Amino acid sequence: MRKFTLIAVLIAVTALCTGVPSRAQDTTPTPVKVIFSDDFSTRANRWNTFDLGKAKIDFDETVSPSVLAITAQQSNYSLWTIPDSDLKLPRFDMQADLTFGSGGDEALAGMMLQYFSENDMTVLAITPTGEVHLGRLYFGLWRDLIPPARVVVDSGQPITLRAIVDQQHTLRIFVDDQPTGGTTLTSFKAAGFGLFAMTGETGGISAAFHRFAIVDV
User: Fold this and answer.
1) Is the model's pTM score more than 0.90?
2) Where in the chain are the domains?
3) How far is CA 53 from the centre of its chain?
4) CB atoms within 10 A of CB 83
5) Burial of 59 (0-12, 13-18, 19+ CB in 10 A)
6) Are 107 and 204 in contact (CB under 8 A)?
7) Strand pairing of 92-100 and 78-81?
8) Which of 28, 125, 161, 179 would give a disulfide with 108, using CB separation of 3.0 to 4.6 Å?
9) CA 161 to chain centre
10) May I ask the CATH architecture of the domain 29-215?
11) CB 107, CB 205: distance < 8 Å
12) Which residue, among 156, 188, 196, 182, has the nearest Cα to 169 in the 3D structure?
């Protein structure tokens, strides 16, 4: 009996010295709660699509896997799409993978973090040259909420935009998993969400969204 007790003590001491956790310290990771996701392989989430000639949002099934494509030529033209969803997001971890085709260097593509109406939305977007903008589009006028950031992007690879808004309404921004700024969203209200694009002075825009997902935080 004494030999067993001594061995047990030695094992416990060794575990403490080597940093090996005991079974009581083991924790099970909290499962991620997916609020919304779409890889655009089907039309299951029923995004608002249209073709106005000068501007178009639709699924592009000529590529595999298919994408949600946004194109426009008119200068200073904004367009967006929302899914058939009544979700209002008080907090979230939102991500989108996108690529640019032809278009101007000032064109923007990204995510609507808050969609209140067609005249009022908060947007996180990026240009083909890696300029990151957090702005508010209000009755057709864009206003940056924080100074734009600059990141290095690979034009041949999808760009991953990510926005995390926590319970304190603190926003953290990431591009390709790299921290790219943030702010506190004052007077934050839960709202809808969607995808966004806007042309600059010249060149129009052609952008494709490969994936969009929202998880709870």
Assistant:
1) no
2) 29-215
3) 28
4) 17
5) middle
6) yes
7) unpaired
8) 125
9) 5
10) Sandwich (2.60)
11) yes
12) 188
